[in-house]
Amino acid sequence: MTMVAHPPDRVGPSAIVHVAPGPHLQDAAFTTRRMMADVLVGLAPVMAAAVAVFGWFAVMQVGICGLACLAAEYLFHTVMRRKPATLGDLSAVVTGAILGLSLPWSAPWYVGVIGSFAAIGFGKVVFGGLGMNLFNPAMVGRAFVMISFSVALGAGAFVLPDAPSVLSQATPLTVGKMTGEVTPLWPLFVGNVNGSLGETSAIACLLGGLWILVRRAGTWDAPLAIVGTVAVLSAGAQLAGIHPSLTVGHHLLGGSLLFGALFIATDPVTSPLTRSGRAVFGILIGLFVMVIRLFSGYPEGVMFAVLLANAMVPLINRWTVPTPLGGPVPGPVQKGGGA
Amino acid sequence: MSAQAFGARGTGSFPRGIHPAQAKHHSAAAALEVLPPPARVEIPLLQHLGAPATAAVKPRDPVAWGTVLGVASGFVSASVHSPLGGKVVRLGVTTLPNGRHVPTVAVAAEGEQVAGQALWEALYGGPWPTAGLDELTPEAIGAVVREAGLVGQGGAAFPTHVKLTPNPAKPVDTVLVNGCECEPFLTADDRLMREAPAPIVAGALLAARAAGARQVVIGVEDNKPEAVAALRAAAEGTGVVVQSVRTKYPQGGERQLVLSVVGRIVPTGGLPLDVGVVVVNVGTAAAIAAAVLRGRPLTHRVVAVTGPGVVRPANLLVPIGVSYREVLDFCGGLRPEAVRVLSGGPMMGLAVGDLATPVTKGTSGITVLTAREVRKAAETACVRCGRCGEACPLGLVPTRLALASRHRDWALARRYHIQACIECGCCAYVCPAAIPLTQLIRMGKAMLPKE
Ligand code: SF4
Ligand code: SF4
Fold this sequence. Notes:
heterodimer; A: 339 residues; mainly alpha; Ammonium transporter fold; 55% helix; globular; B: 451 residues; alpha/beta; Rossmann fold; six-stranded mixed beta sheet; four-stranded antiparallel beta sheet; 19% strand; binds iron/sulfur cluster
């Protein structure tokens, strides 16, 4: 945009004065890179809880996914499509961290690697790179390995009979759904239960999520809508006697609901553009989660719920075109055209 | 005459908007100074929105301070007058910062000039009546304002008499004087309000008389407490209300200020007039008073010369038509780090490529930026974070508008109401991906095919 307007001697003692269209200022403190870095900081408490519960398994899993995502981004984006390197925007690291934290501790190393390449390749680069993708890349990777390695990642994968303590228990939502046995809520809250790495501790998710919201790396509209919808629907389900051993508390604190609401549904790229759009998006996720949890064979539904809602984002954007402050532009409004 | 305040109060703020660093410290403490008369001025015949004035002089014609150089060529047009005594040198052409080539009249100073304190006293000093203004008819006020070549001094430079002419279909109940100066860096209105509050109040009352308004409110951002205090003292007993409003960009935009102060929403595509409000800038109000009460046409204005790229930031009373270079030289010139000279402030101001460009009636300031401030981050992909929409004072979706403009998808642009954009720059300021949103949307608006 900038060009030299005139030879230097026409403009001042020694300065070269440029012309460029305004605005001439920019909020330099807030960049894409900083947003991504803030998401990583927000993930730190979740990571800490995962390490506390699962030890080295957590470090390995997240490390593998982070590195594999960086490698995949470099390979697909920079080597194969000859685009400028984008590793510096940290978005690949975020994808890797979220993917890693959404896997069970027991998943073999190649699951993480394949998931990462699927996440970046199918989830992001085929759409044209960061900002163009329709689906959350980490969830694409997660779904890919879920389907490819259903045994290694199924409900049974979380249970190792000879492993110590929490690692030998089935996940709380599986227990609740299959046997009607009630897991106490407190362990769900502080994080001493089995599950995917990132879903173990509700309080860690809340802490990290709060950071993301405070730093405005994500918006609160979708998380609030998700939590509200799940609370209402799970209360209704309990009253209606569907899996009555799972209370509202279990639905909110168990599984990856909070992790998904705060770290996955807040992904700006794959959520709607406006506030009202994000509220609709969150309600849809909450609805899908409850439908999957209550009526399908899966105990946990956040991943598919997010992917389904992602697919509806273009539609949601269309429904929620805001009206300008002074009302619509007068005169005949042309209809049609692309989204 | 006295105005009365009545209902329909705004909340003092408007939705969304941004908080860029105010950067007023460069020049806020510098008292107004009078620029020594230049040897030569070059006065554009088109400094306003509307039709250019028609030259009324020929080369070698003698002129005095206030002589008409160009006559308004229609209702939406404005006359121009000589700020110097001397002689017409030539009729020429110049390029204004907005890119328009406009005809000019160059005047060389000859003999003694009204300058310094005498000039200040003539335009702003001494007592200004606030009573007895009812004896002037609205038509008489409007006619004088028109002859004096008054245009809005906040930047858009719309001919003032057009706003003040009563329209039976759209009665006006409020004159809103805009003292927000919400652009970062600029301090000229602030200094004028502090140092010459009396003509502002008198001019506001005259504007109300001309437009048939009963209520007069001066809206000032709350980062200028001295200006508020000075205006309140000057407005004592006149019924003029001085309301401080929240410091937030673009508080000084007409639509935002009308909402903040009067609590009315200007319809998209409409004017404040549609909701019974006439908005004039404080500088314009003072110029109305000088024209009506002292017979002075608009020949001088205050400008802030500010920013880290200028050696001695200042607030100056300058003749219209003086070159940017001369004004900057009076302020010690540009620093070596200066990279951009702006007509106006950094949000909506225009970059000036040639310092021989003359100051016009709409030049609200000269801001000189260094490489530290100017936008420079490389553009990256939109991450659809929605921050641009959360900054847009009109509630648009700038990322969509920019995308539509880039791909010339006019149906999409219309669906997202591109015509409602006021080009305030908030969206481009906040975008973490450094996308030149406002620039793209401005281009899209200009290219949008007529329906
Ligand atoms: S602020 Fe920039 S990155 Fe965010 S949605 Fe708007 S255009 Fe895209
Ligand atoms: S420039 Fe236009 S789209 Fe951008 S914030 Fe201002 S009004 Fe909204």
